[in-house]
Amino acid sequence: MQVMLKKRIIPCLDIKEGRTVKGINFVDIRDAGDPVELAIRYVEEGADELVFLDITATVENRKTLASLVERIAIEINIPFTVGGGINTVEDVGVLISAGADKVSVNSSAVRSPGLIRKIAGEFGSQCVVVAIDTRFINNEWIVYVDGGRTPTPLHTVTWAETAERMGAGEILLTSMNTDGTKSGFSTGITADVSKRLNIPVIASGGAGTPEHFREVFLKTSCSAALAASIFHYKEISIPELKKYLSDNNINVRR
Amino acid sequence: MIAILKYNAGNIRSVRNALTGIGYESIITDNKDELTRAEKVIIPGVGEARSAMNYLKERGLDKLILSLKQPVLGICLGLQLMCRFSYERDTFCLGIFDAIVNRFPPHDKVPHMGWNNFTMIRGDLFKGIKTEDDVYYVHSYYAEISPATVAICDYILPFSSAMQKDNFYATQFHPEKSADIGVRILKNFLEL
Question: Which residue from B161, B181, B180 is spatially nearest to B75, judged by alpha carbons?
C-alpha cells in the first residue's frame, strides 16, 4: 500500500456580519449564503479543511464571529481555520476556545511579527497560519495589508521566511493579481515561497478550473490549494475536482 | 459517562463536540474521582510535551492516569505523553509505551499536516478501517515504532500512527477531525 500525504483542497468562506460573501479582486462583494450550511455541504462533498475569513472584523462583530465559530465547531468534523482582524493573543484565545483549530493572521503580523511568536508560544505553531496577500508590481512580489488596500515595503519571500522563523505553522499565500479572476494560480511566486520554506504553503487566488489545481500541484510544492467562489457557486464540485486530480496522478483524499 | 481530561492543551473541546455528534455524553474534567469513575477516559490535545507533563505532575494527574483501569484513549500529544521520553524539550513522559518521541528530520515539510493513510493497521481501534483510509494529522514530533504500535504511517520515515498496551490506546492522528473515518475509529474505542 502506497502511503502518501494528500494534497488538500480547501474551500474558503469570506464572512461579513455572519453571512458568506465573496469579493472580486478584493472589492465587489456578493452574498453567498449561510456559512454553517455551506460548511456542512463542503464537508459532505469531501473538503479537506475549511477557512473562514471575517472580512469586516470590527469590534462589535467579534462576538458574532465567536458564536459562529462555536456553531461551526459543533457541526463539522474536519479542521478549520478562522481569520480576520486578529490583533492579540487574547483574540486567538477566544476563537480557539470557541473551537477553531487554527487562526490566520495577516496585517497584524506584518505590523508586529512578534505576534506570531506569541501565538505559537501560547497555542503551538500548528495553529498559526500566516496569511500573505501579495501583488506583482514593478517586477516584484510585494506584501499588501488591510485586505489588499495598503502596499508594504516587504518582499513576499522574505516576509514568508520571517513568518516561518517566528513560528508560523503554515502560510496562506494569496495572489492579488489572480484572485477572483479564475485565470489560474500564480504558480511562480507559489513555487518560490513553497521551495524556500519548510512549513506547508496553501496556494490561493485564481482557481477557475480543475486544470488550475493540477497545474499548481505540478509546478509548485504547495501542500494545499484554496478557492472560494468556484465552490460557492458550484462551478466546480469538490468530488469532480478530486476525481480529476486523482486521474491525473495527484494524491488527494477520496 | 466519558471523561475528557482537562489540562493545558488545545483542541479539547473539539473532542467533546465529536462525542456529542455521535451521541455520547462527556465531561471535561481534571477531578480525580470523576476520571476514575468514568466509563472511558480520553486524553486529547495539541500542545507541547514539557509544559503538559509539568501540568499533569503538579496535580498528581500523571499517577492517576497510570492507575486507570478503564479504556483510555490518548490523541496526538496524548499519544506522545504516553511514551517513555520525548525529545520535545527533553521530557520524561508517562512511560506506558516503551517508545521514544523524536522530531521529524527536515527532509520534507514539518509539521506533518494533513490527510494520510496507513502502511499497517491492526486491533480493535481499526475494525472496519482499511489501510487506504485517510486520517488527519498535525504534528512535528513522532513516536518510534515499538511493540505497542498497532498502526503505522510513513511520512519522512515510518512512525507509530496508533499504539496500544493493555487498556491504553492512542492515536497520533485526530479522529475527531478525520470526518467519517475518524467517527468510526472513535466509535470503535467507545464500544470497547
Answer: B161
Chain segment A11-56, per-residue pLDDT in tens: 999 888 778 876 554 445 566 678 999 999 999 999 999 999 988 7
User: Is residue A35, in this structure, part of any structural domain at all?
Assistant: yes
Of B48, B76, B112, B153, the catalytic one is B76
User: How many domains are contained in chain B?
Assistant: 1
Q: How big is chain A by its Cα radius of gyration, in Å? A: 17
Q: Which of B46, B48, B110 sits opposite A198 (nearest CB)?
A: B110
DSSP sequence for B41-59? EEE--BS-HHHHHHHHHHT
> Is B174 in the active site?
yes
Chain A residues inside the 8 Å CB shell of B154 = 3
Query: Looking at chain B from residue 47 to 66, which residues have their Cβ under 8 Å from any Cβ of chain A?
Result: 47-48
- Here the CATH number for the domain that contains residue A42 is 3.20.20.70
Range of the structural domain that residue A13 is part of: 8-247
**Ramachandran region, residue B23 (left: φ > 0; alpha: ψ -120 to 50; beta: rest):** left
pLDDT higher than 50, residue B27: yes
Q: Do B20 and A77 touch (CB under 8 A)?
A: no
How many domains would you assign to chain A? 1
Inter-chain touch A3–B112, beta carbons under 8 Å: no
Q: In the prediction, which pLDDT does A25 show?
A: 46
Residues in chain B: 192
> Three-state DSSP class for A188?
helix
